[in-house]
Specification:
The protein has one domain. The chain has 9 helices and 2 strands; from the N terminus they run H-H-H-H-H-H-E-E-H-H-H.
Length: 255
């Protein structure tokens, strides 16, 4: 890799990530309104948009995988993110146990970044296009592994097999082969393959080989949000909770 990306910002990726994080924040606002503060409209909107949530989460995960090719300190990034994720779990477990997050998207991303850092020498030997193709196939095959998809291996409706019950253990929950109550859940299977597909696409980004139009800025606001996406993701849930709490208190005072 020749490091051209160090000289040119890939604004399209920032803009997509910025738009994506806004959509995810709105979706989480519906969840907070409906299931924490009891607003019926929040529950209805959350359920309505639930089918497309994996798509937007997948974009975020894919871009995070790309970013690993542009970072010089993935072990440090992954370690810090893991500490933040564990801190969020501890906070929720103490103060909001009914909404605790045991292995959410931040937990997953931290583990994925650390795995990428450890496996990078082997991953570097794989051609990007071949890596993306293999990851796409494995994503399809493992999509049904988590309990919310039925603990299946294969492609549902074509060739899928039920995972033996004796394999499903609580301690395999992060892998996708278990069940624990959690407000957010992004197991290693299948999401690691979405992340790794992004890391293979990131080879082209690191080499400055993306289409020219991706380097031109079109939406500065979205680009600015995208550059701070991880920080915004970490802070948006407390901000949403605080906003609804204040709004609820004001409405009660006026009632």
């Amino acid at each position: 890799m020749n490091g051209k990306s160090n000289l040119r910002r890939i604004h399209f990726i920032d803009e997509v990530r910025g738009f994506d994080i806004i959509l995810m924040a709105i979706y989480h606002a519906f969840s907070t309104a409906g299931f924490v503060f009891g607003y019926e409209w929040g529950r209805e909107l959350f359920v309505f948009f639930q089918p497309v949530e994996p798509f937007f989460a997948g974009i975020f995960i894919f871009i995070c995988g790309m970013s690993c090719r542009l970072s010089r300190s993935n072990l440090k990034r992954g370690g810090i993110l893991l500490l933040i994720a564990l801190g969020i779990t501890l906070f929720l477990w103490v103060f909001m146990p009914e909404h605790v997050i045991l292995f959410g998207i931040l937990h997953f991303l931290s583990v994925a970044i650390l795995l990428f850092a450890l496996l990078r020498p082997a991953l570097d030997r794989i051609k990007p296009l071949a890596g993306i193709a293999v990851c796409a196939a494995l994503l399809l095959i493992t999509w049904w592994v988590p309990y919310y998809n039925g603990h299946l291996i294969g492609i549902k409706g074509i060739a899928a097999w039920k995972i033996p019950q004796e394999i499903i253990k609580p301690w395999l929950y992060p892998l996708g082969l278990g069940y624990l109550p959690s407000s957010d859940y992004f197991p290693i299977l299948p999401w690691i393959f979405c992340f790794l597909a992004g890391s293979f696409a990131g080879v082209w980004a690191a080499d400055g080989r993306l289409p020219e139009w991706m380097y031109r800025q079109r939406a500065p606001f979205l680009s600015a949000i995208g550059r701070r996406a991880l920080l915004i993701y970490i802070l948006h849930q407390p901000a949403i909770f605080a906003a609804f709490y204040i709004a609820t208190q004001v409405l009660r005072l006026r009632a």
